[in-house]
Amino acid sequence: MKCNSIVMVKQVPDTSNISGEVMRPDGTVNRAKLPAIFNPDDKVALELALELRDRFGGKVTAITMGPAKAGELLRECLYMGAAIRRPSRAPS
Fold this sequence. Notes:
three-stranded parallel beta sheet, alpha/beta, 92 residues, elongated
């Protein structure tokens, strides 16, 4: 039995080394000052979906949304073995 999977992936700020430089006066994090990384939980989900595909056959598709640099995330998904899909931007 084939197992087709869709995995939604997202870039998130790397909060492993937050310093005062990235904090705003109101106590929130300035995401623009932190590097973006593959959400670790999403990466685990993608790895599991790829394992299921290898075991049972089928297709794994990774989907994301976000700014243009989210393309880096899709490239990593492609290298891992997933097909990729980036939804078109909604008109503003």
